[in-house]
Amino acid sequence: MEITKFMKKLSSHKGVSDVALIRDNVVKLDLGKEDSKDFFISLKEDYGFEHCSLISAIDNQPQFELVYHFSVIEGSIFIKDSPKTVMIEIHIFLERDTPTIESVSDLWFGANWHEREAYDLMGIYFLGHPDLRRVLLPEGFAGHPLRKDYVYEIHEEEW
Amino acid sequence: MSSKRIGGNPSLRRGLGSKTTDSEKIMEDPPAGDWLALRSDQFLKWIDNAVYNAAEATGMREVVDRVTRPIFNYAQRFSPHPLHFGIMCCAIEMGQASAPDHDIDRLGLVYRSSPRQCDVLIVNGPVCEKLRPKLKTLYEQMPEPKWVVAMGECAISGGPYWDSYSVVAGADTFMPVDVYIPGCPVRPEALMHGFLTLQKKIREKEPGLFLRR
Amino acid sequence: MAEMWISMGPQHPMTHGLWTLKVKVDGETIVDADPELGYLHRSVEKMGERRKYFMNTTLTDRLCYASSTTWTHCYALSVEELMGVEVPQRAQYIRTIMLELQRLASHLMWAGAYMPDLGHITGALYFWRDRELFLNLLELPSGSRLLYNYIRIGGVKRDLPDGFEEKTERILKLFEQRLDEYADLFENSKIFRMRTEDVGNFTASQAMNLGITGPNLRGCGTKFDLRKQDSYEIYDEIDWEIQTREAGPGYGDCFSRYMVRIDEMKESVKIIRECFKKMPAGPTMASKVPIRASGDAFRRTEDSRGEALMYLVGDGSDRPYRWKIKSPMFTTISACPHYLKGYKVADIPSIMGSIDICIGETDK
Amino acid sequence: MSLFSFCRWMAEWTANYMLIPVFDFQKNLFPPFSHPAGTIADWLGTDGGLDTLAWTFAVNIAFAIGMTNLILVIHLERKIAARIQDRRGPMLSFRSFRELGEDLAGEAPSWRFKDNYSGIGILQNMADGIKAITKELIVPAKADKFLFTMGPIIFISSSVFLLVLFPLSDRFAASSAPAGLMVIMAAFSIAPIGVLTSGWASNNKYSMIGGMRSAAQLMSYEIPLLLSMAGVFLLAGSFDPVTIVEQQQEGTWLFGLPMWNFIPQFLGFIVFMICILAEVERVPFDLPEAEAELVEGWTTEYSGIRYMLFLAAEYIRGFAGAAVCTILFLGGWAGPWPIPPEIWFLSKVYLILIFWIFIRWTVPRIRTDQILELGWKKLLPLSLINILIVIFMVEIYPYFSDIVNLPEVF
User: Fold this and answer.
1) Cα dist. D202→C25, C328, D159 in Å?
2) What local confidence, expressed as pLDDT, does residue B1 receive?
């Protein structure tokens, strides 16, 4: 499937808005939180995005933003006359009071620890995640340090 | 920030985390009246004390110390076996130091994987909050006499990670450090110099006595 | 023997860094595994939010201690994308040379660390001896042995010194000879192949789903290298091949991963030579580099270990609002129960060594 | 003059001029009682007493020679390994004694590190050994204390015992039993019990797996090892090292060279070399202490002198293994005249040891299941074939050659 055709198809999905081509091989779109799981399933099954590159959580004060990067490795989407592979960047906005979203780790195993990290450092809860524990910080650590309102003491030496 | 070596002094050592057990308490104060009630380990301790006191009284201790101390000191300072333990960048340079170009084996350094068989703990990177208890365990697993080398800026003071929420400000905040090797990362030559400095330190501060360790 | 959990790490010769692998064994067969990270979590992402854009290269250098230039380069690329900086042609060539030299050093570090895992200490010292050559080479332009801080936003710190090309050529020639010599010691050795072949297998489709990229994925036969697939700098102007292993016995196992890296080193040598041939004259730094940025941008590069991705969000100030690092090893380690199950305890070092762990970038 | 007659002469001299007068003097101090000193003095006058004293001397001499060799072997290992790896190895020089002398004399310390690392480094072993004495001996809290101390004793004593069992030549033997090699092999196979014991008692999973591996390795390697030795025993018709070496001098080969056992029994020689490597636990068969996966294997929890003695005992076993190999297959102490047989024997042993060092530093370690497979499926059949060949040589061929007048080959 050529990338322009792919972009047209994307717009027809429920909850998808602002589909844009931000580089010659990267498609960016915004997605509603409720329709995310259906969209991710079709992203994997229909369009062949085999690889979950990154899930990053951003504290936009007040709401949270989740940015998913998926990439094609041997999939069916291509760019004409170019060896470049296609990536997709998906933005999902979450309310600060309810930072929950459905997990995609059953679709991409590689997303498993990215979700754990987002939970660990940003406090986003992934529903249906098999093993949502802290991954980088020790168990019992108070707070989620990558949030902008996290306050910590800096050990500054006296000079 | 104290870089004082605490290894040899039992009272300070105890403050570092090894707790005084009940049997030790009994040992310090042997029951004067009922010798027969001594357990075998208490008895050995008592014998040890008796021999020590006798040696002390006759002046034998000084003679034995005078001869054995330099020999043991010589052996200790020329065979420092570090723990095979890497934290960050400096660990790579530590490995590179044993490569043919620098060959730290010339100084008799053999990396042992088990803390039980080591003399030197090289802290070669930032100590994070999650690592700190483990590092302390490693230190306590090592047999006396033991030394700690803080290798690189991170281990000395936190280095580039001074404003991090999870990095401890230097290894000496929770364990005694003998030698600091600055550098980010430490070059292999600097590591060698650090070990020569450690030798110098061991030589100047003679280790524990022979009869009572 | 009953089933039991063995905890390996954080101080264990197998780990190559600081992490804990808990394995459940039945006799000597692995039944289950549970990796644990975080002993080296330095909070680079949070610290980056307190520093200016150009100051963060210090932190990116220390992200991966075996391959620091590639990470700084990934960061510089992302910031350039965010700010819209155009890098001069000569700087791009110099960057490519530095990246490939760093890749050689990193792969040699890996090979050196892999050999003691198999009980072959001499191999480690041979590879580290060769790595020393490349460290000396990288020291010439940058002035440092391990953490160079040479690639800056908008170009490189300074031009290559005089005589760099001749020195590089001499070292590359020596290195090629030595790689041919080592073939008899390693890949043609019966015991080496006994330890690595048919150990730690995974197929390409599994690897993609598990999030495994880089040489580990190419060891499964997938032609996926971001230097071609998402080309940056001047990799698309240079004639080189993606190194993979053909399907057959020993496909997607430790041996194929070993061979992919060895072949990649040979390919890197080619790239460096061609870069020197084609290198134009000119400035090495963009004429104007802004210090403020807004919006968001990301670039991904082919790190020595796989796909490196940095996602940056700017809010118009001179510091990043959010800086997210994707480490290839983070997902690869998370998948280790999948490729450890069913093998022996003695295979753990062989498998975990072959995927080339670097905890610095993993724990961030 | 043999070692024993020398020791006997020494024993007589010691008894007559040193021991008996002392005991007699003590006896005379207490004339009314039958003091033990008197009994000892009487006993020392007899043949049995003098023999016992002579054996004691012989064993001590053999032991001292073995321990001296041990230092040399460890030094060789470190230096050759370093040279293989394109580096220099330990370089602690005798000049470092200057510092020691200053410390002993109590003068003010002055720091001269330039001189300390410019020698051949044989002092490094000494420093390591003495340092180990000063280290704290740790017994883990949950370890089985009795077995934790017994394990090293079993391992080290059985290894040191090996040193006095093999002869350096027909005249230089501390012990000469008709079943000499059987005793050596029995002593060899005690050590895995010590390994298993200390591995289990450490209360450490790595140690335990190391101990288990040692037991498994013993099971799979002892059998082909003994079967490959059986060929030599059949050929010589004896377990006695002296007989075996003498038998090897009988036949001749090209240019009148003696036909040592490794020529007719090449198969057995190969099997033996592999198995003895596994027996002394060297790379590629050092599974019980595979440092990549089992931190230090079964020695993980041992500190200080216990660990150092483990290390020493392993080298002693290596030395003994090479000595057995020399006796069985390389003609023992036989060699041209001007060089004494003891030197011939030791040089052959060192040749094998250096060969092992080269193997150790050039091949990776193999896996447990592979080692068992190699032992049971390949080496065992090969050693059986070797025995068949020897039986053919010893029994069947001479029988037929008597009947049909075959040429005398063997």
Assistant:
1) 19, 39, 21
2) 39
For the beta carbon of residue B199, count every other beta carbon within 10 angstroms. Answer: 22
Structure tokens at D268: 């057995």
Query: What domains are defined for chain B?
Result: 10-58 (no CATH), 80-204 (3.40.50.12280)
- Virtual torsion, Cα C2, C7, C8, C11, nearest 10 deg: -140
Exposed, middle or buried, B52 (CB in 10 Å: 0-12/13-18/19+)?
Answer: middle
Over residues C113-170, the pLDDT tens digits come to: 888 888 888 888 999 999 999 999 989 898 888 888 889 888 888 888 888 889 999 9
CATH superfamily membership of C40-330: Cytochrome-c3 Hydrogenase, chain B (1.10.645.10)
C285, β-bridge pairs: C155
Residues of A in contact with C328 (CB under 8 A): none
Q: How far does Cα D76 stand from its chain's mean position?
A: 16
pLDDT tier at D31, thresholds 50, 70, 90:
low
Distance CA D102, CA D228 (A): 56
Contact (Cβ atoms closer than 8 angstroms) between residue C236 and residue C228: yes
The structural domains of chain A, ordered by start, are: 3-127 (3.30.460.80)
Interface of D with C in 362-391 (CB under 8 A): 362-370
- Distance CA(D247)–CA(D241), nearest Å, equals 10
CB neighbours of residue D347 within 10 Å: 13
Q: Which chains touch D (3 or more CB pairs under 8 A)?
A: B, C
Of C358, C323, C341, the residue nearest C24 (C-alpha):
C341
Cβ-defined contact of B185 to C18 (cutoff 8 Å): no
pTM for the whole structure: 0.86
pLDDT of residue D36: 64
Q: What values do phi and psi take at B196, rounded to 5? A: -65, -35
Half-sphere exposure of B1 (CA within 13 A, CB side): 11
Tokens for C243? 């190194």
Answer yes or no: is pLDDT of D310 > 80. Answer: yes
Residue B206 and residue B67 in contact, taking contact as beta carbons nearer than 8 Å: no
Rounded to 5 degrees, φ, ψ at B136 are -65, -40
Give this complex's ipTM: 0.85
Domain ranges across chain D: 3-87, 90-134, 142-404
Is B113 close to C360, i.e. CB distance below 8 A?
Answer: no
Domain residues of chain C, as ranges?
Answer: 40-330
Q: Determine the residue type at D229.
A: M
